What does this fold into?
Amino acid sequence: MTTASKPLVAPAHVSAIAPYQAGKPIEELAREFGLDPATIVKLASNENPLGMPKSAREAMLAAAESLARYPDPNGFDLKAALAGRYGVPMGWITLGNGSNDILEIAALALLEPGSSAVYAQHSFAVYRLATQARGARHIVVPAQDYGHDLDAMFDAIADDTRLVFIANPNNPTGTFVPGDKVAAFLERVHEAHGDRVTVVLDEAYNEYLDPEFRFDSTALVRRYPNLIVSRTFSKAYGLAGLRVGFSVAQPALTDLLNRVRQPFNVNTLAQAAAIAALGDTAYLEEAYASNKAGKAQLCAAFDRLKLRYVPSYGNFVLVHVGDAPRINLALLKRGVIVRPVAGDGLPEWLRVSIGLPQENDRFIDALTAILSE
It folds into this structure.
């Protein structure tokens, strides 16, 4: 005899969340269509196709000797390396289980029911999820040319706004806001709202920027106590599977973030690998060069195929294909995984991560064949 269960009760704002949809794993596609996993090309999750740096792998293996013990909860050595790299005190750094964790921590520390967050249309899905999970109000500002309209975002700030999210470069569209415009926006926000409104500058793809577009966001942190800069080791540093991110902010904000951060949120192997990767400038330069060449390869193909795309500053390209569900399914059947972005309000587009030259060729050949059918 079974006991009748009572209905599960959860906060309405939690029940309303649509779970994050990650890129389809290679193993799942292989099972679904009976494909050989070794033949599948995954260009869906903006991963570094070079694989993790050898230096990071060696550091991780050495650190494995101490896995019976908990990781350093404060990440002293990693924070010291980051402080040296960015020229900030260690007390300005918060470590995260990937930069997603940093975004969630910021929302947990600063949002609550009755507050709001501002973010752009077609920007990173985690801004929506983190806001929703705290029962806060969404203020979604229409995109301008698929990117951030900072003037409109400033105007959208309300009396209950506590967080503004800016992705720079933006995922999934690949757009970029120059440093002078970011600085002008921060000045306006701080002048009008003081420290009441915190701006999160999400720079997950920063290392892929061409040198002429790079700017020192840590200098902005020194100037504005209401700024959190978020970075990750998942993209250009090739450590997506280890989940390491961090933020830089002045002490008052950093203290708040660390009050709600989970202890031991960055594991021992991840800390060791991140320290090694941070010092591996040769690998980082190779990742940048490979990405630049691959981006040109994809864009040249889109030009030949007369497909519209958004010029990208990241390690992916957003391309307009029309019937995206049909084309995505046809690509999957050919063993090529890309990312549909209908959930980001772009139902006729696909986001294609930049892979190795031969992986890009596989995608281009498959797409060409599908479009000619």
